Amino acid sequence: MMLILEIIGGLMFFGFMGFLSLLLLPGLFGCFGFLLVVVLLGGMIIFFSLNLVWVILFGLVYYIVMAGVKYLRYNKLPTYDNYLTANPNVYQNGQVCCSFCGAEHLSHVGLFGMRSKLRYYVCLRCRNWLYRFKVL
Ligand SMILES: [Zn+2]
């Protein structure tokens, strides 16, 4: 986020400098100075916009990889039935507990955001992922 702000700030700075040199340079160098400034400015803008594209591309790739890792981790989670058969002592007093620390306070979370149909239960005490389920 800071990088994008820096790029925008840089563009504004160069735009301002370009504007200043437009006022000053034509009197000093005439047409040649004006062309030079335009070429320099254009080069700067292309350079920065290319960088911006790379930043966006990198962000996108990073997001997709993280989503993939999350989905793989989700797929490794047991279903509710598997969780109960693998941990026979987690069902106590009509409640399902955490198999890691025994806490009763569990909460379900969407895999991709709050309204995600792929959901899983996490323990509120030790933050372990417990089992997955799907909302139909
Ligand atoms: Zn726990």
Structural class assignment: alpha+beta
Q: Which ranges are low-confidence, i.e. pLDDT below 50, for 5 or more consecutive residues?
A: none
Strand content: 15-25%
Question: Which sequence of strands runs across the widest sheet?
Answer: 3-4-5
Number of domains: 2
**Average of the residue pLDDT scores:** 85
Number of strands: 5
Instruction: Give me the Rg, rounded.
Output: 28 Å
User: Percent range for helical residues?
Assistant: 55-70%
Largest sheet: 3 strands, antiparallel
Q: How many helices? A: 3
Shape: rod-shaped
Distance N to C terminus = 36 Å
Bound molecule types = zinc ion
Name the helix and strand elements from N-terminus to C-terminus, one letter apiece: HHHEEEEE
SSE diagram, text form:
Blueprint: H1 2-29, H2 31-76, H3 80-86, E1 91-92, E2 95-96, E3 106-110, E4 118-123, E5 129-134
Antiparallel strand pairs: 1-2, 3-4, 4-5
The protein binds zinc ion.
Task: Please name the defining characteristics of this protein.
single chain; 136 residues; alpha+beta; 2 domains; three-stranded antiparallel beta sheet; 3 helices; 15% strand; rod-shaped; binds zinc ion
Describe this structure in words.
The protein has three helices and five strands; from the N terminus they run H-H-H-E-E-E-E-E. It has 136 residues and is an alpha+beta fold. Strands 3-4-5 form a three-stranded antiparallel sheet. Strands 1-2 form a two-stranded antiparallel ribbon. Helix 1 packs antiparallel against helix 2 (31-76). Zinc ion binds at residues 98, 100-101, 103, 123, 125-126, 128.
